[in-house]
Amino acid sequence: MTEATVRALDGLRDLSMIKWYVIPMLSVVFYIYVREIKEAKISGNWDAVFAGLTIFGMDFFNETWNSWVMVLSGRSAFWTAPGDTALRTMVGWNIEIMFMFSIMGIIYYHSMTPGKKVKILGIPENWAMAIGYSAFCVLVECMLNKGGHLVWEYAFWERSFKGVILIFLIGYFHFFCAAIFVIHLKTIRNKLITIGGIYSLAIIMNIIGKGVFKWVY
Fold first, then answer.
1. pLDDT tens digit string along 12-38?
2. Which of 171, 52, 167, 164 is nearest to 100 (CA)?
3. N- or C-end of the chain: fewer Cβ atoms within 10 A?
4. Quick count: other Cβ atoms within 10 Å of Cβ 85?
C-alpha cells in the first residue's frame, strides 16, 4: 500500500480523534435540515430536503466504491484523505467532507430560480448549476490535492485536462444528475424509493465489505 493509504488508515473511525468543533458544525447541519423540513411541512414541497439527501447518498456510495478500489487493488483508492481531521470515516472520507455534502444538495436546490424555467448561456438553469457546482468542486479538490490533503495515486486521476474531466464526471457531476432526477420525479413515493435505493446500495456494499469479508477501509 502507498504511504498515503497507510496514513489514511491510521486512526480510521477512532473516536479519540474527534474535535470539539464537530459539535457546532453538527448543530448547523441540524438547523438547516430542521428549517427545510419545517418549510416543507407548510408548503408541501420536500425537494430541498430530497436534494440534500440525494447528494449525500451519492457521496456515500462514491466513497464506498472508492474504498473498495483500495482493498481490491491492495495499493490505493482513487483518492485518499490522510491529512488532519476531526474524524476519518473512510480512507477518502472524513467528517468535514460529510458535513459539506450533507448540505450541498440544499445549497444547489436553493440556487435555482423558483417557479421559472430559466436558462444560463442557453442551458437550462438546473443543468447549468450542476455543471457550475461540479466545476467548483473539482477546483477545490485540485487545491486540496496540491496542498497534500487529498492524495491521488493513479495517472488517470490527476491535474491534467483528461484527469480533470474524469474527476468532474465521476467525482461530482453525477451527484447533481441524481438530484435533478429525484427532483423531477412526480410523486414523493417514487422520490423516497429512489433515495432509499441509493442508500441501500451503499449500505449493502459496506455490509459485504466490512461485515462479510472483514475489509478495513
1. 999 999 999 999 999 999 999 999 999
2. 52
3. N
4. 20
DSSP labels, 103-160 = HHHHHHHHTSPTTS--EETTEEHHHHHHHHHHHHHHHHHHHHHHTTSSEE-STTSSSS
| 185 burial via Cβ count (<10 Å: 0-12, 13-18, 19+) | middle
Residue 157 to residue 170: CA distance in whole angstroms: 10
27 to each of 20, 33, 48, how far by Cα in Å?
A: 12, 10, 18
**What does the domain layout of the chain look like in residue ranges?**
3-212
What are phi and psi for residue 45, nearest 5 degrees?
-100, 110
With beta carbons less than 8 A apart as the criterion, state whether 178 and 54 touch. Answer: yes
Write the single-letter amino acid at 81.
A
Name residue 124's beta-bridge partners. 119
Residue 84, CA distances (Å) to 8, 141, 150 in order:
10, 16, 11
Mean pLDDT for 57-83 is 97
Encoded amino acid at 52, one letter: G
Distance, CA of 83 to CA of 43 (rounded, Å): 42
Q: What is the pTM of this model?
A: 0.96
The answer on pLDDT for 116 being more than 90 is no
**Coil, strand, or helix at residue 1?**
coil
Q: How far apart are CA 212 and CA 191, in angstroms?
A: 30
Distance from chain centroid for Cα 105: 10
